[in-house]
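To the team - pyridoxal-5'-phosphate complex, inputs and output below.
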Amino acid sequence: MEGIRYFDHAATTAVKEEVLKEMLPYFSESYGNASSLYSLGRKNKRAIENSRQRVAHALDANAKEIYFTSGGSESDNLAIKGIAYANKSKGRHIITSKIEHPAVLNSCRSLEKEGFIVTYLNVDKNGIILLNELEQAIRNDTILISIMFANNEIGTIQPIKEISQIAKKHNIYFHTDAVQAVGNLKINVKELGIDLLSLSAHKFYGPKGVGAIYIKETVNFQRIQDGGHQEKNKRAGTENVPGIVGLRKGN
Ligand SMILES: Cc1ncc(COP(=O)(O)O)c(C=O)c1O
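Output:
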């Protein structure tokens, strides 16, 4: 990138040389399908599980709570629709904010067409949601609060722990789109009380088209894509092994 000064790391980052080096063998040397039982498959399965451990460690989660996806948009869709469909007998109300990424906003709009009800919270002049407005928006049938960790346009960081405490008090799941936060901020999902979290590799020196979702073990969640049993039956599709190997926390 000689001669280019790039100032928009919120949009994307370049893949780090050392990350690319780790990824390369998985394109054409070790190209096995991770679901295959012979050695080429098993080797790639191990590479995936290694990466899962690394992501889990970075978030202070358990490896079995990490599922690989095609990026932040898919993780957001999965979180919002996966919770909505699994818990609709309990309620059909969702709370989010007006400044979410389109992956969250448009998932909510899709659900509205299916009879779900969504409250879009305002933010104050500093781009932060008002906790009293959040409390007031909660109804008996609220099943999910989805508030982003850090905003992609203005960089504001929401009071995640306070939001999760409100959600917990009312027995409501809490999802956070942390696509702009992972890699920049230390995130401990247990300490912060997060139930679901979205992240995307290309925001922290990994490749585009790969991400992950953290889903706390106890969350009642339903897969949204029909297909095979990959990712413990939560996300169908042959795993993107080079991408998953390239999904590592780093800056
Ligand atoms: C806050 C936020 N959420 C979600 C996304 C979507 O992530 P991806 O590009 O991996 O689909 C982005 C990407 O710009 C983002 O900034």
